Amino acid sequence: MKKIFFFMFLIFTSLSFAQLVGPKLALQVNEYDFGDIKQGEKVSHVFILSNSGGDLLKIKRIIPSCGCTAAMPEKDELAPGESTKLTVTFDSEGKRGKQTKIIRINTNDKENPQSLITIRGNVIMNSSEDSKGNSAIIHFPETQHDFGEVQEGKTVEYEFNFDNSGNSTLKIGDIKTSCGCTAALVSKKDLAPGEKGTLNVKLNTANRSGKMSRTITVSSNDPKNPKKVLTVYADILQ
Questions:
Q1: What burial class does residue 125 get, using C-beta atoms within 10 Å of its C-beta: 0-12 exposed, 13-18 middle, 19+ buried?
Q2: Which end of the chain is more exposed for a tag (fewer CB within 10 A), N or C?
């Protein structure tokens, strides 16, 4: 009888501890600098995610700041004390100079539902690339935007920044959206070397529900990236 009582006491204590502490995401390291990266290379780093809480940790969503970055965990649920690896890959194609990218990790950690990981690097051009002559380079610091939760029927908008990091005039061509509910308007069609521009994107959520993503494809005379794809996300609430 005493053993049964003791066993029930342990179960009750464990459940109470789990409810009291809850799941908690712990990051051994939340930043990494790749240093110099040759343009066109893909580089990766492994981050360790742990559950230092007392209940099951659920990794709900991982959101990179741009399409050039990918992040995938080995496991999306961690028991108390358990760890997993998160591999973050950065594609330097079409990039130049110092880069900083943010990866957002959404979990059921009530005290800290969103954690951030930062990667940095300096993309350098090969001398052979520099000798190829003049060319335009379209550069978007970010190629994704998450509107988060949006009430159905509302139109939301976001402004993407871009610039011409090449050494000849950048000419913007067609801008196509994946759905009629999305509109995109560029501030300027021709950009001189070093000049900046904006692309305003509007998303109409009328008659939509649940999670949705839409793409905007920007055509230009950039010989390496003639079509640049931007993505917007939203969670439509009824």
A1: middle
A2: N
